[in-house]
Design goal:
The protein is of the alpha+beta class and 154 residues long. The chain has one domain (2-147). It is 31% helix and 27% strand. Strands 1, 2, 3, 4 and 5 form a 5-stranded mixed sheet that branches. Strand 1 (23-34) and strand 2 (38-51) form a beta hairpin. The longest helix is centred in the middle third of the chain and has 20 residues, at 76-95. The chain is globular.
C-alpha cells in the first residue's frame, strides 16, 4: 500500500508539474540503520511541485510529494503552507498509508484545528507544529520513500 502511495505521489509530479522548473527537491533526509543481521539505508526526499492548476486548495501532500499552487511561490504564505504540508510528510513517514483513515476517523489530530477567529501568522510557520499531531522528536520513521538493504548471513 505504501508503495502505491509513492507511485501515486510521483504521478502527481507529472500531473500537476508544469515543467522541470516547477519541481524541486526541498529536502533530502538520509538515515542508516545497522544490526548484526542487516544494514539499511533510507532515502526520503521531500519533493515540492509548484502548479498553475487550480485544484480547490492552496496545497496538498501525498506521501513525500507536496503540491502547491504557484501563486504562493516566494511568499510568506507559501513558506507557511509548505511548512504545514511538510508536517503531513512527517506524519506519513510515521504512519504510512494509515494516515488517511486516521485523518478521516479523527484518530489523530492530523490537520491543524484553528480556533474560531484564529488568523495565521505567516511569519511564524512553526505555530502549526503546536496544533497538529506530529511524531515525537527522534521517533523512528517506519515508512520510507526508498530503502536499500544488505542482509548478512543465510
Amino acid at each position: 500500500m505504501n508503495a502505491m502511495i509513492c507511485y501515486a505521489a510521483m504521478a502527481s509530479v507529472f500531473l500537476f508539474g508544469g515543467g522541470l522548473d516547477s519541481v524541486e527537491i526541498a529536502e533530502w533526509d538520509v538515515s542508516f540503520e545497522a544490526s548484526v543481521y542487516s544494514a539499511q539505508l533510507h532515502i526520503d526526499p521531500v519533493i515540492l511541485v509548484w502548479t498553475e492548476r487550480d485544484f480547490g486548495g492552496a496545497a496538498f501532500a501525498l506521501g513525500n510529494v507536496i503540491v502547491v499552487e504557484d501563486d504562493f511561490r516566494g511568499t510568506h504564505e507559501g513558506e507557511y503552507i509548505v511548512h504545514h504540508e511538510r508536517n503531513h510528510v512527517r506524519q506519513f513517514r510515521a504512519l504510512g498509508w494509515l494516515i488517511y483513515p486516521a485523518y478521516w476517523l479523527g484518530y489523530y489530530q492530523i490537520e491543524a484545528d484553528h480556533p474560531a477567529g484564529w488568523v495565521a501568522d505567516f511569519d511564524h510557520p512553526e505555530d502549526e507544529d503546536e496544533m497538529m499531531w506530529l511524531p515525537e522528536e527522534g521517533a523512528k520513521e517506519r515508512y520510507h520513500w526508498l530503502t536499500l538493504e544488505l542482509r548478512f548471513g543465510s
